[in-house]
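User: My collaborator sent over this chain with a note saying "see what the structure looks like." That's all I know about it. Can you take a look?
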Amino acid sequence: MAKIKVKLKGVSTEGLEALPEGWHLVRVSGMKQGKSKRSGKPKIEITFTVKKSLDEDGDLVDDNAKRKLFATASLQKQALFTLKRFLIATELYEDDEIEGELSFDTDDIVGEIDMWVHVHNEEYNSRVQSRVDRFAPSSLDPDELDLPDVMDDEEDEDDDEEEGGEEESDDEEDSDTESEDDSDDEDESEDESESEDDDEDEPEEEKPKPKKPAGKKKAATGKKKSKAKKKDEDDEDW
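Assistant: Without extra context I'll predict from the sequence alone. Here is the result:
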């Protein structure tokens, strides 16, 4: 095994602090297609290298230069909004291409394109992480980044993220519907059981008296006929 020599004096074991929230001018330094570990669906992992950062006073500073940022763009049909906004920010494609079926080469973007990205920090597994939540073309001046048309992108993204939950929430709605149907069936079964109980409580109706067998009636008719025949014979003898 090769010997490795490093100088660790003054190196913090806490790792790098999260980037300041706000706008950063970055270079697209990597794009890699892969699959989500959780869902197995296709995605593109995008790496950015920070060039400048916009501080609270609106000045460009290089305090975070060469820091890395990452974003993930899903390739699923219902979640293409992140990729679409990223491609718009590259300014490489016409509107009709963006709104149609687009084929693009990552070699035209990686190492070639600068853009603005907006960072939002959030806590994940007890650590604060920087998340890219917006993109803007590098041609915009810093004082144009917070104009309404740029902010609208964030609102649209929120809407798209919510739409993506209606299709999943569709299953929840279906499950709710199924549970309601099940409850209806239970109510019907309860009603049936109640009706059966009511039937048991009702007194039994008096059964009609059985009719005399037809055979006996015929026998009686035969007796009448024999009496009538005997009477006729007596009259003849008389």
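A starting point for your reply to your collaborator: The chain has four helices and six strands.
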